[in-house]
């Protein structure tokens, strides 16, 4: 079995939901990352903010400095994995939801992040990672 805890990056940077979007963007720039889990004051994951969220929801409107992250993050039904989750299942989940990065959560706390590239380095998972990327790269249809 290929559990996610063998593939995940455990040094995860997070932001608090009350911080500004500019703070999140600065963190992404400093560490060259594309998404940051959002936590509340208790350290529980409440959402995720991506570079795309910032670009489309905030920067285009010129409000990054004063906009709290809680207004721009994805909060409802944040797709997440667990440390014991099978990596094959994680790749399928990422393809289904068209995401490239999956937060790994245990007891509500973010303990890691897995990117498609992390899965692609394993020969047994390479094909699934390629299939997931193919699904992610295909534009989704508008919801009706």
TrEMBL record:
Q: Mind listing the UniProt keywords for this protein, alphabetically? A: CBS domain
Source species of the chain: Virgibacillus alimentarius
One Pfam family from the UniProt entry? CBS
Give the signal peptide range.
Answer: none
Q: Which CDD domains match?
A: CBS_pair_HRP1_like (cd04622)
Q: Give the InterPro entries listed for this entry.
A: CBS_dom (IPR000644), CBS_dom_sf (IPR046342), Diverse_CBS-Domain (IPR051257)
Q: SMART domains attached here?
A: CBS (SM00116)
Q: Does the keyword Cytoplasm apply?
A: no
Q: What is this protein called?
A: CBS domain-containing protein
Identify the SUPFAM superfamilies for this entry: CBS-domain pair
* Residue ranges annotated for the CBS domain, each copy included: 8-65, 73-130
Extract the PANTHER family matched here. CBS DOMAIN-CONTAINING PROTEIN, CBS DOMAIN-CONTAINING PROTEIN CBSX3, MITOCHONDRIAL
């Amino acid at each position: 079995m290929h559990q996610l805890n063998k593939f995940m990056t455990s040094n995860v940077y997070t932001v608090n939901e009350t911080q500004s979007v500019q703070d999140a963007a600065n963190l992404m720039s400093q560490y060259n990352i594309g998404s940051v889990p959002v936590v509340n004051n208790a350290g529980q994951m409440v959402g995720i903010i991506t570079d795309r969220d910032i670009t489309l929801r905030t920067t285009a409107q010129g409000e990054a400095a004063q906009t709290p992250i809680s207004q721009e993050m994805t909060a409802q039904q944040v797709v997440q994995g667990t440390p014991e989750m099978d990596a094959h299942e994680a790749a399928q989940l990422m393809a289904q939801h068209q995401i490239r990065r999956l937060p790994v959560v245990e007891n509500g706390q973010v303990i890691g992040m897995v990117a498609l590239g992390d899965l692609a380095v394993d020969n047994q998972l390479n094909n699934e990672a390629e299939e997931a990327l193919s699904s992610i790269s295909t534009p989704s249809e508008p919801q009706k």
